[in-house]
## 1
Amino acid sequence: MAFTSITLNPIVQILRQHKAGIRAGVYSVCSANPFVLKSCLVHAKQFHVPLLVESTINQVNQYGGYTGLTPRKFNTYLHDLAVKNSFQADQLIIGGDHLGPTLWASEPAESAMQKACRLVQDYVSAGYTKIHLDASVRCADDPQKPLDPRLSAERAARLCAVAEEAFSRLPGGSTPLCYVIGTEVPTPGGMTSSAHSLEITKPENAAETIAITRLAFEHLGLQSAWQRTVALVVQPGVEFGDSAIYEYERQRARPLSALIENDAHLVFEAHSTDYQTRDKLRQMVEDHFSILKVGPALTFALREALMALEKIEVELYSSQPITLSALHATLEKAMLAQPEHWQKHYAGSPAEQAIARTYSFSDRIRYYWSMPEVEQAVQRLMRNMSSNTIPLSMLSAFLPIQYNHVRIGLIQPVASEIIIDKIGEVVEDYLYACRLPETVA
């Protein structure tokens, strides 16, 4: 199939450059946090590149997800943020991650798939244009073994047909859909084991997934959708745990990387690329892992910024008649009161768990920023820190990179700009890796 014959959306336009030999890539922001999204919008606008934001079925679904947002509400939320930050709407791309029956795997397959079909329909109808089809989960009445890959492919094709039908009902001129297939991804939010190395996807397994999924699409008359299928999710050997980062090793991944070079239009999508160095990220893009997913590293940087500002707040105001934010204490109280987001992820003694709750690379703390009491603590911190300019000497002690950025005039010494700039350190690594534009330093 000729890759250049496809009518493409902006993601695929970038990936077409990659397949043509210009090793461009796309980074995908997996977060609903307003600080994170503002930083990403600011940086994408600065470098004149599209911004891809994705939500998972746990975050956003027809029942609200843990964000409380349906797909249409999440779309509205993102576009409202874009307007506030003067970001062009046609440069904002919204994707859905792991769309399939996972949330309803405890139900019989047909019941779970009906809900998954409604999920995909709602995502597409709401304006999502990058759709990751993931039907690999075993449902309640499936055989007691890993799901047959062919059955998984058939279910993914069924979901694709629903997406295509939903798109056909959208107004003319809507951005065409593109699809991602495959499910061999790391544990969401980081590893819980102490493995010393990761098994990279076997090339023959990747080739089989491509072949059987293509046949399943063609069986349902979805040849056009297959031409708009842009990536296969694989494990290139990257991951992170509480305190460990598993670095990309180019030579180990080479056999997998070589597999996709002869494909006319597919690249690889890599999940859990958080905390890789910018040079490692760049190597991944060059090696055809051209869609880089990032999430926890962004909220990890947010947490670092807010807690550093809280330390400055304490130093400045603890002896004054001002109510302090008590942000860290408020977060710890919330996490202990509602441990379901971290308890299965953090092992060890109570002291080790306490360290992990705040400092783990897995960053399970990200689930607590939207809780009312935590939001109030953040707002109090921002009010307290806005009453005076932050002293440069204290900024140097707690946020030295932002201190340097203030010194050279990139930002002002105010809390809001410091937070956006701190998160931007991560964003700029991905801009560098994707080379959008080529001049990113």
Note: Residues 296 and 363 are 6 Å apart (CA to CA).
## 2
Amino acid sequence: MSLYILPAAKAYHFLDGPYVEYKGNVPVEKRDKLVRDLQAAFQEIVEEDVPTKIESLTLAEAELVCNRDSVDLSEYSEKDEIRIVTVAGWACPCGGTHVRSTADLKERKWNVNGTKSKKGVVRIKYGQNVE
């Protein structure tokens, strides 16, 4: 399986076209394989029925939990309480609504649907499977 670890940039998690964006680039010739690898990893996580963990943390605690280089906590101060969402061991600040477990995505027939890479941004599109 290909492994790309790119810094998170932004996300749009609404039903009319959800995606996540990362800073970086994926060469054209590697995009199809990346999508297949992401689809396989997504299905593994769905089958594992991984619970979503949501907690409010101080900046110091959030830095420990979100200890990957790609999580930017610079907008927060020591006084902030930061809402951290963790799924399958990956934690990040997020104020949105989340499924209780990855298994909920199986019932909803969700998967990774495609990717684009343009101007130093990689967009991963996801949502309900198109049949």
Note: The two ends are 25 Å apart (CA to CA).
